[in-house]
Design brief:
Blueprint lengths: L1 H17 L1 H12 L3 H11 L11 H13 L9 H4 L7
């Protein structure tokens, strides 16, 4: 099941990236945001989604730093403890 879920997730993200107009229209129905705000959300959030399962190291480090700076944690473990990419090709 996890493989099917990830496959579906990556296909969904790929569709959303390839069909901006349709994705924004669908999101407007769900979020009830006005078109200009829905487009701004799309422009801001969609680049953060990856379609291949690899992590963006700079983004991971930014999240780790933010968690420490906001006092949510005092230290963060090495990335090898947080995630693996060993199953990706």
């Amino acid at each position: 099941m996890p493989v099917a879920l990830l496959t579906a997730w990556f296909e969904t993200v790929a569709f959303i990236k390839a069909h901006k107009k349709e994705a924004i229209a669908l999101s407007e129905k769900v979020t009830q945001l006005p078109p200009d705000i829905a487009e701004e959300v799309y422009r801001t959030e969609i680049p953060m989604y990856f379609v291949d399962g690899h992590f963006n190291l700079a983004a991971v480090e930014a999240v780790k730093r933010a968690l420490i700076e906001t006092g949510q944690v005092s230290t963060m473990p090495d990335n090898s403890v947080l995630y693996t990419e060993r199953f990706l090709e």
